[in-house]
Specification:
The structure holds three protein chains of three kinds.
Chain A lengths: L4 E2 L6 H38 L1 E4 L3 E4 L4 H42 L4 H9 L6 H11 L5 H8 L2 H7 L12 H25 L3 H9 L4 H30 L2 H6 L7 H12 L2 H26 L6
Antiparallel strand pairs in A: 2-3
Helix pairs in contact in A: 1-12, 2-7, 2-9, 2-12, 7-9, 8-9, 9-12, 11-12
Chain B lengths: L10 E10 L2 E11 L4 E5 L6 H9 L6 E6 L2 E2 L10 E4 L11 H11 L5 H11 L15 H13 L5 E5 L7 H18 L2 E6 L2 H7 L2 E6 L2 E6 L1 H6 L4 H6 L4 E4 L2 E3 L5 E6 L2 E6 L10 E3 L7 E5 L5 E3 L8 E12 L3 E7 L5 E7 L11 E6 L5 E4 L3
Parallel strand pairs in B: 3-8, 3-9, 6-7, 7-8
Antiparallel strand pairs in B: 1-2, 1-4, 4-5, 9-10, 11-16, 12-13, 12-15, 13-14, 16-22, 17-21, 18-19, 18-21, 19-20
Helix pairs in contact in B: 2-3, 2-4, 3-4
Chain C lengths: L1 H5 L1 H23 L18 H4 L7 H32 E2 L3 H13 L2 H15 L5 H25 L3 H9 L4 H30 L2 H6 L7 H11 L4 H31 L1
Helix pairs in contact in C: 2-12, 4-7, 4-9, 4-11, 5-7, 7-9, 8-9
Classes of the chains: A mainly alpha, B alpha+beta, C mainly alpha.
């Protein structure tokens, strides 16, 4: 960091060259120290833990034991697949629901814009466990939602694709994905809103003038311009959803167990630290690889 | 803040230089701006005029050279220590402060007790007193520009710097603001240094214009002097249009005039206009800078048989005539291929049509000579 | 039909809005319930009991107090050190800036369960006893990146000519900072702090890994209750937090609107 200088040359260079060397380092030190000591070091310690053998009573020794990874993967690969599958479904769901809402708030809500934005964020202040428990009440077998799904026959569609069973919405893959969609929807709506709000409405008029119909206007003009919002929204949804286990635990059954649940159990109940660490590491690596590919395809370099 | 100063608003730059890595933005400028003048720094974009201005403001540090305000060397002082204020190109109004607090910002830093009253007076000067409580973003571009001006002049700086302040305004508003700026400058009597790439703006507003190109000063002078007697080919073509005839040499018949040779034509030129040290013994030396004779399009006449014989005559063929209302602009092809531009007022005199063979003439006092590579 | 087509997006938006708010409505309604068993999942009869005795459920208000305290302290620390880092990243170019940005991004790309478990392995390896201290460390960690990102965006979008104008108008660097830079960045800092508070207050997974056996935050209390039986008081707290957040924003907006009106 020896060649620090301010962006945009705000001040005379001579005065800042010396200060510019110390100031950013000084400003960065506390935060970077925190991230290094409590994120980088634990990640390394996790990697080391995953390659150790032993048990909690007799202690662990570092043995380059890659077998743990092989065992963990062969035993828990369905949980990984399920987790990424649910997370992908939930991401698509939040995008499908979040886009119209973000558009509505950005361009059609008029003076209620700010009120609606606040309403999107306000549920955060009610603990998410309480809200997720409320879904148990909403989706219960005798409730009106279940009644609606049965009356319209939608429940048969869901059962046909294996998302529900026994005419019941609760404690099913459907409930888990719905819960994920619900919990992460604000993380999708806010970045989408930010990029849609910036769209100049004159731009849309111009697209209309070029004889673009509604679908063309959307696909050729609006969608590409909203891509930055779509990318950050999908990342903010997919990453935490893949590691989440609250929804699968509160709204799912024994067939919907996600990888987070397995890691949690290995760490806190089974006390098999190497396996738990290996699973954590695989999860993190998989997410980083998927995100890397996704970002490369989406073509946005500026992630954060 | 101690601001003891012996200066009077006169600005002097000595060998002022600024490099950005390998790029030389300003290449050693020597310049004197008299106190109380309206001075324009004119040049194409990237010529270093804004960098020069920012060095005077203290926002950019010179690589070499000195800056004097009156008798004081202010080169080493910081921006906030200089009694110099700037009207920024983007106006740079503080969005979180209302108009009055924007204008009063500098006075409050200077601990002026009656900052409110003085700020209101400045707002009255720019005719925005009734907007004092509004936020900048509630104002139009022209109004924001006037607030930025008020915010700068309210401090009574010794020099006021204007960085293309009219660039963002539309043409009509720009004309109005040009007149307005001139009025305000005469009212407050502060030295104004106005950076612009618009030659018409510079010539209308300033008493003195300095033309910059590629980090150097090309010429400094009054607008009429720059126009009638440009010192370089760059000034001749940047300020208005010029016909530049390449010359092969001079010969000296003695007296007020000398003869210039261009493509076999002997042209009469005022001796006083020749650059110093110009050889008058026929052709130029091999590798010497090229020399051109310049004539403005409106100084060229199309000679008719009844005209008095002209000292300078060039025959050619009209290739184009465009009627623009007050005048008609002709392109006349010379035998050696060069096309000269001729602008004639539509005063009932002879009109030529494309294809006509015409003879062009001009008064030898109205031409000029520039020497250097184009 | 044309009307429907024109307003399709409005209808869809309102439906999604309803989806977002429905659980809160349920939480509020069931805060007035008098359940017949240990679980508050079936409507039984109207009652104000829970509202009149919000702390009747053993340990709940202590857990709530702890969560609020943790959220305040951790969001405060994260905001201060995060804002400093955001200024460095948004303002200066230096070697290793890209790597630093990556270090800031990674915690946000790490699932909570991984972050929580890796911190636990560190604490176990170092022999650090779990408790309030470890919770604070963890919360500052996972909120820090969000604060840095939020504030950095604001710092980077700041027009540098504004600070130059302040310097031009006789403000020394410290005065420029406090009179121009800070007020302009403040909304970003406020948003970052609020986000940090909400994330900390709501966190269960990371906290559960690092809290130890005896320290119980509010989300942990709710989790435990979900296994043993849910007291109605949980719904009361949920409702109060939701309405409280709305009220604070509403009051702030009303004050802002009045100020704007006075200004005109």
């Amino acid at each position: 960091m020896a060649f620090a200088h301010p962006i945009g040359a705000a001040r005379p260079a001579r005065a800042t060259r010396r200060r510019g060397y110390f100031v950013p380092v000084l400003l960065l030190t506390p935060a970077m120290l925190w991230l290094t000591v409590f994120f980088v070091v634990p990640t390394i310690s996790l990697a080391s833990q995953s390659l150790q053998t032993g048990d909690i009573d007799n202690g662990y020794t570092f043995t380059w034991n890659f077998q743990t990874y092989a065992d963990a993967l062969s035993r828990y690969w369905p949980h990984f697949v399920r987790s990424f599958g649910y997370a992908a479904l939930a991401t698509v769901g939040t995008l499908l629901l979040g886009y119209p809402l973000a558009w509505f708030i950005a361009h059609r809500a008029g003076r209620f814009k700010n009120t609606l934005l606040v309403l999107v964020v306000a549920p955060f202040f009610t603990n998410f466990l309480i809200r997720t428990l409320a879904w148990q009440i909403i989706l219960t077998d005798s409730g009106p939602v279940n009644g609606f799904f049965r009356a319209t026959g939608l429940i048969n569609v869901l059962e046909a694709v294996g998302l529900t069973s026994n005419d019941s919405l609760l404690f099913s893959p459907f409930a888990v994905v719905s819960g994920l969609v619900y919990n992460f929807l604000p993380f999708m709506v806010l970045p989408l809103y930010a990029s849609l709000e910036r769209l100049d409405s004159r731009l849309l008029d111009a697209a209309g003038d070029l004889y673009a119909n509604g679908w063309h206007t959307f696909w050729r003009v609006i969608w590409p311009l909203s891509l930055p919002g779509v990318v950050s929204g999908t990342l903010l949804t997919f990453i935490p959803a893949a590691g989440d286990y609250i929804n699968s635990k509160l709204l799912g059954n024994t067939q919907t167990v996600m990888i987070g649940q397995v890691i949690d159990a290995q760490f806190l109940r089974v006390l098999d630290y190497p396996t738990a660490a290996a699973l954590s590491f695989i999860l993190m690596a998989a997410i980083i690889v998927l995100v890397g590919i996704y970002v490369r395809i989406a073509g946005t370099e500026e992630l954060v | 803040m101690a601001k003891t100063s012996t200066s009077t608003g006169a600005l002097r730059l000595v060998g002022l230089t600024r490099h950005f890595d390998d790029f030389v933005a300003v290449a050693g400028i020597d310049l004197e701006v008299p106190a109380g003048s309206f001075f324009a720094l004119l040049g194409p974009s990237g010529c270093g005029k804004t960098t020069t201005l920012r060095m005077v403001a203290g926002l950019e540090e010179p690589t070499a050279g000195r800056i004097y305000l009156g008798a004081d060397d202010i080169t080493a002082t910081r921006a906030y220590q200089r009694r110099v204020n700037t009207v920024f190109q983007s106006y740079a109004l503080f969005p979180h402060l209302n108009v009055l607090d924007n204008v009063g910002f500098g006075l409050r830093q200077l601990k002026v007790a009656d900052w409110k009253q003085r700020s209101m007076e400045a707002l009255e000067l720019v005719q925005l007193a009734e907007r004092a409580r509004q936020r900048p973003r509630q104002l139009s571009g022209g109004m924001q520009q006037r607030v930025a001006l008020a915010r700068a002049i309210v401090n009574r700086p010794e020099v006021l710097l204007l960085d293309e302040p009219l660039g963002a305004l539309d043409l009509k508003l720009r004309r109005e603001m040009q007149i307005e700026l001139k009025r305000i400058q005469q009212e407050v009597g502060i030295t104004f240094i106005h950076v612009t790439h618009d030659q018409e703006e510079a010539m209308t507003m300033a008493d003195t214009v300095a033309v910059m190109n590629a980090g150097r000063l090309e010429q400094v002078g009054e607008p009429a002097q720059l126009y009638d007697r440009p010192a370089t080919a760059f000034v001749a073509s940047f300020l208005g249009q010029s016909n530049l005839l390449p010359l092969e040499g001079f010969s000296d018949p003695g007296g007020e005039f000398v003869t210039a040779h261009a493509h076999g034509n002997g042209l009469v030129v005022e001796r006083a206009q020749l650059p110093e040290g110009m050889p008058l013994d026929g052709g130029f030396a091999e590798g010497a800078p090229s020399v051109h004779l310049g004539i403005r399009p409106e100084k060229l006449r199309i000679l008719s048989p009844e005209d008095a014989p002209s000292a300078n005559r060039l025959g050619g063929t009209v290739t184009d005539a465009s009627f623009t209302g007050v005048a008609t602009t002709y392109l006349v092809a010379m035998p050696w291929g060069q096309e000269l531009t001729v602008t004639r007022p539509n005063d009932g005199s002879l009109r030529a049509r494309p294809g006509d063979a015409v003879v062009l003439g001009w008064d030898p006092h109205q031409s000029f000579v520039v020497s250097e590579a184009l | 039909m044309a009307w429907l087509r024109r307003n399709l997006v409005v209808i869809a938006g309102l439906l999604v809005m309803a989806y977002i708010l429905l659980p809160n409505l349920v939480v509020t309604v069931f805060s007035f319930n008098k359940p017949s068993g240990r679980y508050n999942y079936q409507w039984n009869e109207f009652s104000l009991d829970a509202w009149l005795n919000p702390c009747a459920s053993a340990g709940m208000c202590e857990a709530l107090g702890l969560s609020l305290w943790v959220a305040v302290v951790s969001s405060l620390v994260a905001t201060v050190i995060g804002t400093a880092a955001a200024f460095a990243l948004g303002r200066y170019r230096f070697r290793g800036r890209a790597a630093t940005n990556l270090l800031v991004f990674f915690p946000m790309a790490t699932p909570e369960v991984v972050m929580g478990s890796s911190l636990l392995t560190l604490f176990v390896a170092m022999g650090v006893p779990s408790g309030q201290g470890t919770i604070l460390i963890a919360h500052i960690l996972f909120t820090l990146s969000f604060v840095i990102t939020t504030v950095k965006a604001r710092v980077a979008s700041l027009d540098p000519s504004l600070e130059q104008a302040a310097a031009d108008l006789y403000a020394r660097p410290s005065q420029t900072f406090w009179r121009v830079t800070f007020p302009l960045v403040a909304p970003g800092i406020g948003a970052g702090a609020l986000l940090a508070f909400a994330l900390s207050f709501d966190d269960y997974i990371v906290t559960n890994f690092n809290a130890g056996a005896t320290t119980v935050t509010f989300p942990m209390y709710v989790w435990g209750a979900a296994q043993r039986g849910t007291p109605v008081q949980i719904n009361v707290i949920g409702t109060v937090m939701f309405v409280g957040a709305l009220a604070i924003v509403g009051i702030a907006q009303a004050i802002g609107a009045r100020r704007r009106k006075v200004a005109q």
